[in-house]
Amino acid sequence: RRDVVLLTLGTGVGGGLIVGGKLVHGRSGMAGELGHVTVNPDGPRCDCGANGCLESYASASGLRGLVEQRLGLSPGAPLPAPIVDSEGNFSVRGLSAQARRGDRLALEAFATAGYYLGIAIAAFLDIFNPELIVIGGGVAGALPYMRKAMMTQVRERAFTAVASQAKIVRAALGPRGGVVGAAYAALHPVKRARRAR
Ligand SMILES: [Zn+2]
Fold this sequence. Notes:
Number of helices: 6
Order of helices and strands: EEEHHHEHHEH
Bound molecules: zinc ion
């Protein structure tokens, strides 16, 4: 594949870009910080210091924030049992299980995350005209609960000709993607292209 946008939905949101068959690094290796595009200028504060980044919604920390907001809890307050793991930490898996049972709070949180994810993906589609958008990371398992809201925004915002050429798929390597990529990078070091003068 020569034109690919990767999003990793984990604790935060990471990204990677392949344009014309080349990995995009940017001037200092910072290109592809797709999690920090603004999807809501009036949104919650992101760890990067800006407001309403994609990461503030479509990540584990973003989902936690959405749940806290809906429950009227202050950030970091203890959460109800079904959505925490055995150590008391917020669990996207637990939230997914609640969504599967039809729990309204969980479904709304995922729909909001999907809404903002769709806004961002529509922009990436129009900017890069990719053939593939790959979504990985631990939160990608909850994609079924985000997909409807996400696809509505993609259809409403992206150019139809561009959106219809792109497949939006889950990363095939799942949680092993990072470790396989690290091994691949060690075996095939990336040569940074010299900047044209
Ligand atoms: Zn940010």
